Write the structure tokens for this entry.
Amino acid sequence: MRKNVAQALARMGKKNVTMDEITVIDVLSIIESLKGKVKRTDKDFVKVSDKLIPALVEFANASNWYWQSQTNKILERLTNRILWDAYENNDVKKISQKYLKILEKSNDKSYLDTVAAIYAWQKNEEKAYHYSSIALDETPKRIRLLLRGKTPQQVEKEIKNENK
């Protein structure tokens, strides 16, 4: 892996960087950022999500248990950020079934909250209620409001005001 990183970094001066080079560099930089060694924001990751998510899935599948675990955590965090950003900004185009499938497997209740909210926003009552039952305490309320036709912005404003 270090050899790949070294080769990728050596070639970064070229205009045409291969997907393999982007994959290795992005995966390692995300891992380092989560450890607090490199400062990058979730917004940075959202910008490269179309390349990064498939790369992370491939990286996780080809890695040993430790790297699979670490990569899956990163993948879930990034995917959640992308979906929540789309939800908050009412951007239906960014919602992808492949992203939802990634989060559906998570054990993190906040990620399952995102899944439930998106399904409710899409008016998929069965899946919305299923995921709300295993998510955060506030999720059922979020789901009810979305299924009644409120926009994500209205729902989040109402929940925020109640939590004050």
In short: The two ends are 48 Å apart (CA to CA). Residues 5-17 have pLDDT under 50 and may be disordered. Residues 65-88 form the longest helix (24 residues).
